[in-house]
């Protein structure tokens, strides 16, 4: 048998074989990481940096192969779940047919009164035999009800598992697209270094100095967050990289959403974080926050340990709606972050991605991650409409983020602004990635 390699292998490989390949890929990734770490401690030279670039490219390629293997594993799990759901559906149909039969038998037994049964029976023993039959029917019916309930529960769990696997697979595929582009950036940088320097150390020293100056300027650039506050570009990028690697929403796009300095005609950002939830306002309920948002807001404040009376939220913006109350850097509404009545929202999903609980909409990492998840959800429908056209998909998702179901009206305005800003950010990120 041929030795396994870090590649996708055959389509019919067992989960054990896929896992073995994955371990080989992980070992390769660790080896390339060690080379980068070792070389980074050496003095800067052309040969050293070329070796680092090569190791980064090889590492990225191994990571891409590892993700391909994980996608193959998930695909196998998805197919198993689909078969399981089909089997459970067939079982449920069979149980319902049996239940219908038993219900008919029950109705037939109940249709005759005790007197009629006694009159039609040749003796009392026949009557009691019929009565025993009735009890058996009742018992069979109760058993069927229990099995139907159990089958429905198993079906719901199988469907939830299926959706979870599909979500993970979609995220991995989205990350693949991002990482392949990063690999291209590294390869282009290698080609550029060789072309510009022609192998001369002096020319390379000059190139390095220029690149470091540009990178420092990019990293230290101040970004204003949509929900208020400021971050250096380098710090914001570090935060955006975390959900990018796990959710597949590229960092440039996420930053473009969260750092719209002027928003739509200067409106976004002008009324953010200047009110409190119970601030008196000319609204139907007399306060900044809608009544149906307040229970969730108070619950969130209790969970994250903040005083609701001193925690700033957005003020109402007349053109966008009657009420305010959006929270934190990403401006999540309370029921979107966590609907206490429905026990649903982005909070738990954010905790799963970051590993930090409780997730707070006022924490930068949690807010960035929540926005990435929100955008990822919107991009599903956008990809169905625009396919692999990244600009259109991101413009569409941006418009959904801003206007919800009315997104088409804003795709060429707000959506285009964000998509253009994302392209600009990506150029800066490519420069930093090539360092």
The gist of it:
This protein is mainly alpha-helical and 435 residues long. It has 13 helices and 2 strands.
Key attributes of the depicted protein:
435 residues; mainly alpha; Helix Hairpins; Lysozyme; 13 helices
Report on the structure:
- With 435 residues, this protein is mostly helical.
- The protein has two domains: 183 residues, Helix Hairpins, CATH 1.10.287; 213 residues, Orthogonal Bundle (Lysozyme).
- Helix content is 70%, strand content 1%.
- It has a two-stranded antiparallel sheet with strand order 1-2.
- A hairpin with a 5-residue loop joins strand 1 and strand 2.
Annotate the secondary structure layout.
Elements: H1 15-40, H2 46-111, H3 114-120, H4 124-197, H5 201-220, E1 222-224, E2 230-232, H6 233-247, H7 251-258, H8 291-304, H9 334-337, H10 346-354, H11 364-386, H12 390-403, H13 411-433
Antiparallel strand pairs: 1-2
Helix pairs in contact: 1-2, 2-4, 4-6, 6-7, 6-11, 7-13, 10-11, 11-12, 12-13
Give me the CATH architecture of the largest domain, please: Orthogonal Bundle
Query: How many beta-strand elements?
Result: 2
Element order, helices and strands? Answer: HHHHHEEHHHHHHHH
CATH class of the largest domain: Mainly Alpha
Which structural class fits the helix and strand makeup? mainly alpha
* Proportion of helical residues: 55-70%
Rg of Cα set: 30 Å
Helix tally? 13
Low-pLDDT segments: 261-271
Q: What is the distance, rounded to the nearest whole angstrom, between the alpha carbons of the first and last residues?
A: 42 Å
Biggest beta sheet attributes: 2 strands, antiparallel
Count of folded domains = 2
Sheet-strand content, in percent, reads: under 5%
- What form results from the Cα inertia axes? flat
pLDDT averaged residue by residue: 84
CATH topology of the largest domain: Lysozyme
Order of strands, widest sheet: 1-2
């Amino acid at each position: 048998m041929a030795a396994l390699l870090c590649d996708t292998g055959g389509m019919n490989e067992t989960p054990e074989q896929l896992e073995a390949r994955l371990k080989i890929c992980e070992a390769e990734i660790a080896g390339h990481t060690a080379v980068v770490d070792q070389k980074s401690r050496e003095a800067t030279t052309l040969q050293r940096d070329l070796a680092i670039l090569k190791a980064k490219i090889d590492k990225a390629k191994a990571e891409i192969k590892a993700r391909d293997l994980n996608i193959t594993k998930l695909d196998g799990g998805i197919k198993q779940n689909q078969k399981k759901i089909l089997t459970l559906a067939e079982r449920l149909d069979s149980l319902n047919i049996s239940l219908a039969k038993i219900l008919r038998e029950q109705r037939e037994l109940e249709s005759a009164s005790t007197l009629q049964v006694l009159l039609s029976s040749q003796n009392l023993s026949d009557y009691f035999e019929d009565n025993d039959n009735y009890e058996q029917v009742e018992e069979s019916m109760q058993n069927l009800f229990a099995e139907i309930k159990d089958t429905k529960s198993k079906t719901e769990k199988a469907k939830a598992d299926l959706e979870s696997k599909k979500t993970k697979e979609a995220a991995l595929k989205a990350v693949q697209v991002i990482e392949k582009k990063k690999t291209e950036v590294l390869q282009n940088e290698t080609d550029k270094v060789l072309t510009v320097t022609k192998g001369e150390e002096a020319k390379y020293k000059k190139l390095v100095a220029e690149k470091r100056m540009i990178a420092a300027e990019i990293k230290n650039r101040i970004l204003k967050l949509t929900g208020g506050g400021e971050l250096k570009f380098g710090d914001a990028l570090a935060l955006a990289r975390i959900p990018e690697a796990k959710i597949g929403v590229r960092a440039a796009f996420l930053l473009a959403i969260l750092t719209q300095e002027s928003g739509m005609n200067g409106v976004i950002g002008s009324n953010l974080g200047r009110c409190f939830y119970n601030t008196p306002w000319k609204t139907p309920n007399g306060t900044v926050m809608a009544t149906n948002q307040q229970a969730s807001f108070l619950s969130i404040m209790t969970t994250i340990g903040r005083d609701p009376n001193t925690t700033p939220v957005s003020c109402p913006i007349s053109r966008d709606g009657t009420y305010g109350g959006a929270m934190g850097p990403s401006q999540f509404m309370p029921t979107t972050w966590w609907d206490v009545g429905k026990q649903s929202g982005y909070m738990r999903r954010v905790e799963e991605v970051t590993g930090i609980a409780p997730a707070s909409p006022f924490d930068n990492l949690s807010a960035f991650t929540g926005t990435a998840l929100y955008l990822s959800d919107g991009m599903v429908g956008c990809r169905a409409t625009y396919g692999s056209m990244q600009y259109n998909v991101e413009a569409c998702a941006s418009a959904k983020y801003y206007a919800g179901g009315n997104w088409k009206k804003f795709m060429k305005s707000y959506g285009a602004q964000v998509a253009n800003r994302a392209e600009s950010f990506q150029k800066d990120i490519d420069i930093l990635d090539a360092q």
